[in-house]
UniProtKB/TrEMBL annotation:
Name listed for the protein in its UniProt record: NitT/TauT family transport system ATP-binding protein
Family: Belongs to the ABC transporter superfamily. Drug exporter-2 (TC 3.A.1.117) family.
Entry keyword set: ATP-binding, Nucleotide-binding, Transport
Residue ranges occupied by any ABC transporter domain in the UniProt entry: 8-243
InterPro entries xrefs: AAA+_ATPase (IPR003593), ABC_transporter-like_ATP-bd (IPR003439), ABC_transporter-like_CS (IPR017871), ABC_transporter_ATP-bind (IPR050166), P-loop_NTPase (IPR027417)
Listed transmembrane segments: none
PROSITE patterns linked: ABC_TRANSPORTER_1 (PS00211), ABC_TRANSPORTER_2 (PS50893)
Source organism of this protein record: Izhakiella capsodis
GO molecular function: ATP binding; ATP hydrolysis activity
SUPFAM superfamilies linked to this entry: P-loop containing nucleoside triphosphate hydrolases (SSF52540)
Length: 245
């Protein structure tokens, strides 16, 4: 049988950071990791294990010291058009309205005005913020801000969306509601993006949502490894969101 071709392929990636003095501390060493089309992969690991570093390298925001990252058959070398990120801290542009935050990537891609308007309004409708289209981030609750964060990332229809603890700055109920709404959009195929990497601290969330859970094990100065666990379909409850607490 022909082996599936990965959407994202990380080969032998290493990254160190300089701490204070000249000492260089390895954060990730010899990482190999693949993501396929239509896959939702969770990335677990304790604080400081390098989860954010890994997904920032995938998005092209920072460069690996060694190794290669290929997304959609192109080497990632600087900000990558095939991925978008959703940040824990939302990272919205405070000087832009909801509309202009969501439209940002489409404007940067040079789409015409009608197309920008159509795609932006569709995303804002899907995330339930139509009434807030002209509001500024400071006028919104945390949950609403993160909805804008999702809309901005998804509007450009990236091949792969990178979620860095997207619900952890929200209270439990707001986070659950947003997670549930996002998964409904995903399951109903209302969003074009079909592959996600989600960093989370919640084993429960990872098992509920993912096709695959990857555990990043790393302490400064030790070899990093990724253990992969496939989640059997019966254990995955994302298709069954009404059962969630
Ligand atoms: P996680 O997201 O798993 O909590 P991070 O990827 O944020 O971990 O960080 C991994 C390690 O790398 C930490 O020890 C952190 O202090 C260090 N680190 C991350 N970014 C930088 C940076 N820009 N400069 C120096 N050290 C960094
Ligand atoms: Mg992090």
């Amino acid at each position: 049988m022909k082996k599936r071709h990965p959407l994202l392929e990380i080969k032998n990636v290493s990254k160190s950071f300089c701490k204070g003095s000249k000492q260089s501390i390895p954060v990730l060493e010899h990482i190999n990791f693949e993501v396929y089309d239509n896959e939702l992969v969770s990335l677990l690991g304790r604080s400081g294990s390098g989860k954010s570093t890994l997904i920032r390298m995938i998005s092209g925001l920072i460069e690996p010291d060694f190794g290669s990252i290929v997304c959609n058959d192109l080497a990632v070398n600087g900000p990558c058009r095939d991925t978008s990120m959703v940040f824990q801290s939302f990272a919205l542009f405070p000087w832009l309205t909801v509309f202009n935050n969501v439209a940002f990537g489409l404007q940067a891609a040079g789409l015409n005005r009608e197309e920008i308007e159509r795609r932006t309004m569709r995303m804002i409708d899907l995330i339930g913020l139509t009434e807030y289209v002209n509001a500024y981030p400071k006028e919104l609750s945390g949950g609403m801000r993160q909805r804008v964060g999702f809309a901005r990332a998804l509007a450009v229809e990236p091949k792969l969306i990178l979620l860095d603890e997207p619900f952890s700055a929200l209270d439990v109920f707001t986070g659950q509601k947003l997670r549930q709404d996002l998964m409904e959009l995903w399951e109903q195929h209302k969003i074009a993006t079909r592959s996600m990497i989600m960093v989370t601290h919640s084993v429960e969330e990872a098992v509920m949502l993912s096709d695959r859970v990857c555990l990043l094990t790393s302490d400064p100065g030790t070899i990093t490894d990724i253990f992969t666990i496939d989640i059997p379909r019966a254990e995955r409850t994302r298709d069954n969101t009404q059962d969630w607490v």
